[in-house]
């Protein structure tokens, strides 16, 4: 039983060491300020994203899968928003 507890503790530590940490804030109301928090990303969410719609003063910061970064990059030229997609802790 003690060995099982040690294995569980090691897996928990390794998961925590591997998980990405991103800023999290979704402000869809231009009149309200976003309270930025830190978010531990799920394993499938390998990137942090920052999206800014300057005309509407809307900001989004959160964990995303890489595929979402790719989709935003493809549509960036057709819209008036700024995006940053990155893969290091708190890079957004």
TrEMBL record:
<dbReference type="Pfam" id="PF00021">
    <property type="entry name" value="UPAR_LY6"/>
</dbReference>
<feature type="signal peptide">
    <location>
        <begin position="1"/>
        <end position="19"/>
    </location>
</feature>
<dbReference type="InterPro" id="IPR045860">
    <property type="entry name" value="Snake_toxin-like_sf"/>
</dbReference>
<keyword id="KW-0732">Signal</keyword>
<feature type="domain" description="UPAR/Ly6">
    <location>
        <begin position="19"/>
        <end position="92"/>
    </location>
</feature>
<dbReference type="InterPro" id="IPR016054">
    <property type="entry name" value="LY6_UPA_recep-like"/>
</dbReference>
<protein>
    <submittedName>
        <fullName>CD59 glycoprotein-like protein</fullName>
    </submittedName>
</protein>
């Amino acid at each position: 039983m003690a060995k099982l507890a040690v294995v569980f503790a090691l897996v928990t530590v390794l998961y925590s060491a591997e998980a990405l940490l991103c800023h999290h804030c979704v402000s869809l109301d231009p009149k309200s300020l976003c309270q930025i928090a830190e978010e531990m990303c799920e394993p499938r969410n390998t990137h942090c994203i920052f999206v800014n719609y300057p005309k509407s003063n809307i900001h989004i910061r959160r964990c995303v899968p890489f595929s979402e970064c790719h989709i935003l990059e493809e549509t960036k030229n057709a819209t008036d928003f700024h995006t940053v997609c990155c893969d290091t802790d708190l890079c957004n």
